[in-house]
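Hi support team,

I'm filing this because I wasn't sure whether my run with 6-O-phosphono-beta-D-glucopyranose finished correctly. The job status page said complete, but I'd like someone to confirm that the output block is well-formed before I use it downstream. Pasting the exact inputs I used:
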Amino acid sequence: MNTYANPLRDPQDRRLPRIAGPCVLVIFGVTGDLSRKKLMPAVYDLANRGMLPPGFGLVGFARREWADQDFAQVVHDAVKENARTEFREEVWEQLLEGIRFVPGTFDSDDSFRKLKDTISELDNARGTGGNHAFYLSIPPSSFETVISQLKRHGLTDRSEGNWNRVVIEKPFGHDLQSARELNDVVSSLFEPQEVFRIDHYLGKETVQNMLALRFANQLFEPIWNNHYVSHVQITMAEDIGIGGRAGYYDGIGAARDVIQNHLLQLLALTAMEEPTSFEASQLRAEKQKVLAAARVPDDYARHTARGQYAAGWQGGRPVRGYLEEDGVDANSHTETYAAIRVDVDNRRWAGVPFYLRTAKRMPRRVTEVALSFKQAPHLPFTETDTEALGTNALVMRIQPDEGVTLRFGAKVPGTQMEIREVSMDFGYGGSFTESSPEAYERLILDVLLGDPPLFPQQEEVELSWQILDPVIEYWESLDEQPQPYTAGTWGPRCGIEMLAHDGFTWRRP
Ligand code: BG6
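And here is everything the job wrote out:
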């Protein structure tokens, strides 16, 4: 008997592609931007990479009088325009066989009867085994209607061996109270393990690499604490304005849109303890512990900042201010720049401020997590030798220039001992031949596989609101416009002052 395991057949072999089983993915809100730019292309990219089974069906549901072919054309165009991988006719033909469209409104029983018939037809035609994922890419105000319709029409009935899952997009509420109410609605029909909350940052390769960097290496752990780190800066800057999203964004603002989810998740991954494994329950437990220990120090005037972009220049073109954007209330108090200081009250991080900032219309698009280290306790150099020496920093570059940078001092060549700051870089492009999948590819695949570690749980959502709610309440109580900043600059004066009070300055990534 051959005792050698065939590595290609070993289920533990990480090189094996993870392939979803037969199933139907139903997307509500299929005419929206997210669907066109991210979801449909990601479905195609998965198919193209051989990660969707032949028995896969895609159903779009929306208020359009489209036939299946019209919807297929929309998917086709979205794929051609936005897919990451090359277009291959044979992959498309196979996907096309499972594409269906149901015209309808959320409150119409008739539409949901049609949806049920369509899904049953696909179940039979594609052998999906009755496995269904419902992707709610719709405003939270419609969740209750859709979920009760699914229930009423028996669309999520469980039988032996099949599964039903629901995928929900942020915003998970607009504060703690509404997040709880939303969860009550979702959990009235779905068990916790059937609910997949999307925070697309967790689907990014570079974000998952934070776990590899921290826990696969011996090098960083000894200095990953308040003995060595002076402070941490987490930045998500965007050069775009709000585009056509006023309906969603105005009244929501940068803190709810980005800090509550993406940035607090990045903080959790940076600050958490090592989980005993990467099982969902272990990973979530560690993230929860850190979020439970995190708070914004309560002098909010000093430790938070908000701004709103005014007209300026971007990429050599004049751009409008926020208040002039289509659909924005001319007196809007909505912030497009938000920065907060977060302290993590535990032994590892006591005394190390975490500064989180996000904004629209900054000079460039960049997301990074930067750990700044304390000065060496003694520098045996004359003062002028070290003029150009900053503090050591480790920067996890999330996007767009994916990689990791280490900044430290080095001797300038010459006969003198002069020290200057230099960088050591790891870049994905230079080290790996394969390009990174889009976050939504990974997340949709994980939903279809029922693999939960990359999806935040309700507890994390609630803890994040608990951190942010008092800040937002304080901002609202001021009843004034956020400080303006010129589009194309690094934000308002109050943002700079917030760090200056603590003796720091923001990095210019
Ligand atoms: C979304 C926010 O979650 O993330 C948007 O709602 C933002 O306002 C977007 O533009 C940014 O995502 P990414 O992946 O381009 O950084």
